[in-house]
Amino acid sequence: MIDTFGLLSNATFIKSPFYNQRPNQAEISLLAIHCISLPEGQFATEHIKNLFTGCLDCSADPSFADLQGLEVSAHCVIRRNGAIEQYVPFEQRAWHAGVSSFQGVDGCNDFSIGIELEGTDCTAYTEAQYLALADTTKHIQVRYPLITKDRIVGHSDIAPGRKTDPGSGFNWDHYLKLLID
Ligand SMILES: [Zn+2]
Question: Per the database record, which ranges form the N-acetylmuramoyl-L-alanine amidase domain (predicted)?
Fold first, then answer.
């Protein structure tokens, strides 16, 4: 279930400071799927939470040097075990897509929901993640019916050449099939 603020009832809400108001709430019409792991390939760490809440210790790993001062978030993160964390209510604008465009409209953060799967581009995602993502997608589509099947995309689709996630490890056929079951 999704409440009036756009919070999922089965997610743990952890408030991110990295969000603002959408220019037009009525236009929530795109779902963007991403992946993240920090450090890359290491799972179940606290670093994603720390990044999205502005608390990341950038000296904790050499690969975090680029993340200094970065203000990013996503609406949800789905962990390897299927647990869902929500960082920004869907009604608000999360900062996940960056420079992006869908069907000629720039700035996808304005009108999209961003979900991060804990993972890497080329590691298979877990079945628990597919099930949680499909279940969450169904709730989102009930609440935001403009998000039709052809408006569910990867970050790589809206930021080609710049982003590659969720990568070849993401089985689109399997996910889309779960949506109709
Ligand atoms: Zn992404």
Answer: 16-167
